[in-house]
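hiii so my PI (J.) wants the whole complex modelled not just the main chain, which honestly fair. so below is everything: three entries, each one labled with what it is. i double checked the lines twice but i was tired so who knows lol
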Amino acid sequence: MFPTPVEKIAAPWRWGYKLAVPIVLILWLLPLLGVMMTSIRPASDLAQGNYFGVPSTIALGNYLEVFANTPMGTYIWNSFKVTIPTVIGAVALSCLTGFALAVYKFKSNLLVFFMFVAGNFVPFQILMVPVRDLTLNMGLYDTSMGLVLFHIAFQTGFCTLFMRNFIKALPFELIEAARVEGVSELKIFWFIVLPLMRPAIAALSVLIFTFIWNDYFWATVLVQGSHALPVTAGIFSLNGQWVAQWQLVSAGSIVAAMPPVIMFFLMQKHFIAGLTLGATKG
Amino acid sequence: MISSFKSALIGAVAGVAFASSALAGELVINLDQGDPAPKKAFEEMIAGFKAENPDVEVIVNFMDKEGYKTSIRNFLTADAPDLATWYAGNRMAPFVEAGLFEDVTDVWEEHGLNETLSSAAASMTIDGKKWGVPFTYYQWGIYYRKDIFADLGIETPETWEELLAASAKLKENGITPFTIGTKALWPTGGWFDYMNLRVNGYEFHMDLTSGKVPYTDERVRATFDKWAELVEPGYFIENHAALDWQDAVPPLVQGKAAMYLMGNFAVDVFKSGGLSEDQIGYMQFPVIDPSIPMAEEAPTDTIHIPSGAKNKEDARKFLAYMARADVQTKLNETLGQLPVNSKATRPADPILAQGFNVLSEAYALAQFYDRDVPAQMAKAGMEGFQEFMVKPERVDRILKRLDKVRERVYD
Amino acid sequence: MSDSILSPNVERTAGGNAQAASTTTRWLVNQRRLAPLLFLAPGALMFIIYVIAPIAQSIWVSFYEWDGIGAKTFIGLANYVELLDDEAFYVSLKNNVIWLVMYMLAVPAGLLMAIFLNQTITGIRIYKSLFFFPFVISQIVVGLIFSWFYAPNFGLFTQLLSFLGFGDVAVLADETYVTYGIIIAGLWPQIAYCMILYLTGLNNVSPDQIEAARLDGAKGWKMLWYVIIPQLRPATFIAVVVTVIGALRSFDLVSIMTDGGPWGSSRVLSFYMYEQALSEYGFRMGYGASIAVVLFAIMMVFISIFIVRMLKDEREGY
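here's the output for the full assembly
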């Protein structure tokens, strides 16, 4: 293990380390902690310049106000309406493409694979004008559906890379054996490979959920009305109304950040497994 | 970036998609008046329309003012409502030229609007046709702390020299003369307009905003030299590029700054910030060159029928309704602004009444920099103004840059 | 087509209809050939429609003048010629370079943090997740958090500065600091990301080699440089890839923290493109597209490097 485990070093250093970790953590999260504190401050504290002292009261009312006076509830619901179908769509499609690219040898295999990989790295801006036009022409502009379709298509790139590498690492003998048994390719996919892909599906789902939830660019390009605006774009526009009302901006930000944070803490293992696939050899 | 508040007005069905296809008798209105006071004013006005036309179902989308400016392009082409608010003058030209607004000359003629709305008729006309109905305008001017002026024995400045003297005195007493927040850029436009209107006059200003005069012209430079007399001694608050216009109100309320060149809509914010009515004064922007007639800034807000509207019949009814003297009186009372209809009742509010007088005596009215010049010029121009207000020494470079943009935009 | 695949079917159909047997085999063989196509079709089609084709369309649009509502006019290379003489374009380009360079700090910083946390004290798992979780937060929220952090007069950062005796600096309103201020906000989640990559990498460093190196007297920096880092190469590769992409994609933070200001000094190409093509003051689709093409070309350089590297791995048959 590197560096030397603290158990093996002198006691004062060990205790120093144990003390240092929480201190560094607090410094690391300082901006976030500040915002959390601000979110429970009454407006009067801010007006009187009490930005960092103890809040005069704990004003959970800020959160109430965020929900009562703004379409925050709708925004969050919209985010779910975009995120969940995208997760299902992108994961489903990439199970198929990943399987195809991992299991079959055909001439253009690598070419197709690298098309997905390269497309996945492309700057969004080069897609913006045509995708906006396409969505307008399909009559899906300003709908959750328009966003979902684009996200599914784009995320398929990353997901295919992920799934293909995952399936490649599975024991190929299983598939060979099934073929010897005369099992059809579809059944091989469905009964043999898919069950083995469960961890990959879980990991990808959490990752895609976070990516899509946090998307802001496409939300502003493809959606405009609060009936379909996801929470990232929603908080951006609320920020315009809440000028100088940092207690509301803070509370709103925290609300907007909550779902992926909860998702992360619940599914931590899968999340990190997904994120770090390939960070070790193979 | 765009927020819209769907207000479930009387009869509006909750959950109906935004600006969705209107059924017969359904009227979809998109408004850029999402702030509380305007929202209330419009809700009242629409309730009045509803009472007169019980068969029409009105669906209103209140949207955030800044976001609206981008989203209008989208909804006019993609999913047009039956009515949409916008601005007079050059700002509506691109939509008219692209055929996105309906010609409403018939409404003007049928209801005698050429007479009642005559003051704004010119700014609503393109190619000899009328493209919308103006319903409100408001004065710009310098709002100041009467009490601070009185404490320091400062008379309300009427000339540039007096303004400089007042500023110097305020500064000596540890008070920054002017507050401003230029993060959103447009507040700088008010300053440039007034400086240029006072230094070079209305005709020159219009020539400049319509691209006929280069920004590198000596007369434009003269405007900036005058302006520098306030910028260089530090008469504007620090860090204004980090502030929105609302962020710039607290210094005024706290007495750290004493004046604010703004539109009348700011008074509402001053009051909710804690200033009482007798602390707030209003003055016309002072004279710089006495030989130049005083033109004023008075942006006009308008309402239009998109050519893609589904219920143009009711939309026309609504335009006629909004042009009426009684409707404009009431709407503007709540808005705290001025009615365009000449038969409307004059405002009772003292500051508003003062503004009304200034505007009625004005030599001419400018719309506002970002409405008088094309959008691309507006962005580059106001960025230049902002840069000048922080780095006045760069004036020549800035003007050269602006002229490059002018050459391209107006070619 | 090998016997081993055919034989079970032959057995199964033995004694039955010979015709059926041959149909089944043909189906089996054909389906194997068709299967990849069928499995690929839905995903690839979506990807081509929404990603590959738009790239070509954007390049095409960049030769036109188009306001998004009227007709398109072909103007050849005029948009690119204009770019060459556009001060704002150069500001954006310069900022993109600053982004790329500064953002790379996330990689060593992430490594340091991973080394710092690669211990087994009580509660370390919770510490690790808390260190990591800025990455989970949307960039819009990160932008708001840092806007508050930098706010003039009362922001935490400003307070710290004046506590340390520096003057009141409005980071986001100062053309010299603004881009760095935004990048620091961007580094916050990015360092967390690199950290988690390296933590996983460190987990898989072979203990034998560390022991062997220790016996050889390697420790501290030497150990890190000669033993650990070479073994972390896969993690470093991914960290660099995601950081480069992150740097070139930076849009959300600029949009929410400064809107490109003050006077356009914090623009980056991705933001400038959006501004020109879709914002209140823009709607020059053709010009916007030409900016996007430039950004795409820059990204292509990196994409090619990544692909070549991955291709090499593929050939080596990892």
